[in-house]
Amino acid sequence: MYVYDDFDQRIINERVAQFQNQMDRYLDGKIPEEEFLPLRLQNGIYIQRYAPMLRIAVPYGMLNSKQLRKLAEVARDYDRGYAHVSTRQNFQFNWPKLEECPEILGKLAEVQMHAVQTSGNCIRNTTTDEYAGVIAEELVDPRPYCEIIRQWSTFHPEFAFLPRKFKIAVNAVEGADRAATRMHDVAVQIIRNEQGELGYRVFAGGGLGRTPILSSVVREFLPEEDLLTYLDAIVRVYNQFGRRDNKYKARIKILVKALGVERFSELVEAEWEHLKDGDGKLPKEELERVKSHFTEPDYLALEANPTSYTDALATDTAFSRWVERNVRAHKKSGYSVVTFALKQKGTAPGDVTDGQLFAVADLADKYSFGEARSTHQQNLVLADVEQAKLYNLWKEAKALGLATPTLGLLTDMICCPGGDFCALANAKSLPIAEALQNAFDDLDYLHDLGEIDLNISGCMNACGHHHIGNIGILGVDKKGEEFYQVSLGGASGEDASVGKILGPSFARDRMVDIVRIILDVYVSERIEGESFIETFRRIGMAPFKAAAYPTPVKATATKA
Amino acid sequence: MTQIILDKQIANDDWTLVADDAALSDNNEVINFSRWAAAEGADKDALITKRDAGTLGIQLNAGDTADLLAADSQGFALINVEFPKFADGRGYSAARLLRERYGFTGQLRSVGDVLFDQLFFMMRCGFNAMAMREDQDLELAVKGFETFSAPYQGDVNDTRPLYRRRG
Q1: What are A301-319's pLDDT values in tens digits?
Q2: What angle do CA A457, A87, A518 make, to 5 degrees?
Q3: How far apart are the C-alpha atoms of A378 and A455, rounded to whole Å?
């Protein structure tokens, strides 16, 4: 992974010093609350319901074992012994003291981590495929491009006060999209043109929130060296013409929609004409320099499927079930990609304790070249594990509560922290997740249901990505009471779609029943081998609606 | 006399923003862009004469983009760019465009909700003058230009991104 040089390190150190100074002036009463707000946001600090929340950037999800240990230390020493993996692959601490945040950031800077631009109306952490670099089907490793974008966006002098937050995602796999890229303000799809040259298809104007929209193509092919100048052009057009009068209409998706993608593209292209041959053009040497940080580790020449591994698969069903769900093919023979689902019963989705983090760091060192990844599904990945060692790794992970064999299944939910923590939320989301985990804990049943994305957000800001869950749950406030609106048919990935609302919202105590009713419809209607989303796309909303709202509509249901 | 920051020093402000209907004198005066845009015939000629004499400044207010002024900018001795709120970042793009695209070389000044923690960004986008909000501490502010010693991006003062400076 990328290793800072003196320049990179100095920038992060100077940032810590700057923020310490801002914090001192704030605590001294020299910066009023309102003006401190964007400063603390750009350092990852939200004021939540009970305490500040500190969001640490994990650029495109890459972590080494040193960083994992430092995160564990922060969780232990400054928080209540746990951290939370967010849907932007970042780490969040829910209980730090505000005045201690600069100190925490100082400690993280020692291991090349920071909280730069993890919130606020600026360019956020760039995300990508959690399996980047280790799967055969990707065109090239997308991580160097993410790192180049990270550096370009870090303290960009022109784009620190955009109309609204701005998220970029990169994908390099044709036919799969694990980073939900089309839901981003800008999506960069790495492609080759007909001449075999590397470049990008650039999309803009996607987003979730109140107005979920998939992004549109702005440029079919952009040469490799033009990445940053083109991004400059897009963000400059947005910075000048994006709406600033209404925060719900301020994302770039609204501008693209209002202008139409053709007109928007014309403006971007006109702007780019001025920039494309300037100093912002990426020299080949810089591309090579950054790529050289993402070379392969020292893989051994191994035989695929060694006997010890296949024997364990044949004799231990619990192990084979975990492998079936949580272990994925690696580009190198004899290696595998392992996902630890942070979705154990009894803990909030994405939560991980300091002890588990220390242990994952050790496991990364022992089994996976000292590296791990966080995923937008709120899980952790060890990307380079020898198949011959999977059985041992599984046993160790199981003892740590990290081997739940449910990746991609119903209980591998995405869920925001919701009303238990977040000041923006209309409703709690964690109790719904917990109730569902408790109600659907039969592994045979979960495996029989197969892949289902169930996503929960506590409000319209959609941090839990409810729009792109096959089953989406959205917390809504009805005259001070918490209700939940259900949508069906959302999907991320290559054939992404935005879910449609099932009908009037439900009280919290009905949610398990409603999910069960939806699942029953699927089970009775599915044709052999069909996933939930495939069945939904074939039969449509009507059978689900009929089952969920037996006439007349019950009194507990109200129109959302 | 009001004080501003000019070329990283505290300086006296020798310009005055005048109302759209005020008569102009031979003093250093700043008019709103809208007055410039609306002026025709003899009125416009008078403004051009004053501009060419070096005593007319112009102010881009919130929502006035740099392309509206474009090459016209070159003759002015001063251009103000208004920041209606510190969180409104349009002025950064306006400044860069005036400097980098439209060749403006005079005094480029940020006015309005201009606060300490924006100064470094403003300087990088081409502002060489800042009329800070009244409650700001100018003595402290002039120290705010050294926050980062080697930023990643190119900017108005040095167009080379870090990857062309790493050496």
Answers
A1: 999 999 999 999 999 999 9
A2: 45
A3: 11
- Contact of A369 with A104, CB cutoff 8 Å: no
pLDDT in tens, A142-192: 999 999 999 999 999 999 999 999 999 999 999 899 888 999 999 999 999
Q: Specify the number of domains making up chain A.
A: 4
Report the C-alpha gap between A120 and B1 in whole angstroms: 37
Check A157 against B148: CB less than 8 A apart: no
**How many contacts does A have with B, using Cβ atoms within 8 A?**
94
Closest partner residue to B152 among A11, A241, A278, by Cβ?
A: A11
A523 within some domain: yes
- Among A239, A261, A293, give the residue marking a domain's end: A293
Q: Do A158 and B65 touch (CB under 8 A)?
A: no
A560 falls within a domain:
no
DSSP assignment of A385-407 equals EEGGGHHHHHHHHHHTT---S-T
Window B:11-70, CB contacts with A under 8 Å: 65
Q: What is the ipTM of this complex?
A: 0.97
Q: pTM of the entire structure?
A: 0.93
* Structural domain boundaries enclosing A65: 6-109
Do A275 and A336 have their domain in common?
no
Q: Is residue A114 a part of any domain in this protein?
A: no
The CA-CA-CA angle for residues B135, B137, B140, to 5°, reads 160
CATH, residue B128: 3.40.50
Say if residue A253 is in the same domain as residue A172: yes
- Give residue ranges of A with CB < 8 Å to any B CB: 5, 7, 10-11, 14-15, 18, 22, 30, 35, 38-39, 121, 151-152, 154-162, 228, 236, 239-241, 244, 274, 278-280, 282-283, 285-286, 289
| CATH classification at residue A91 | 3.90.480.20
Q: Domain of B20?
A: 3-164
A420 SS3 class: helix
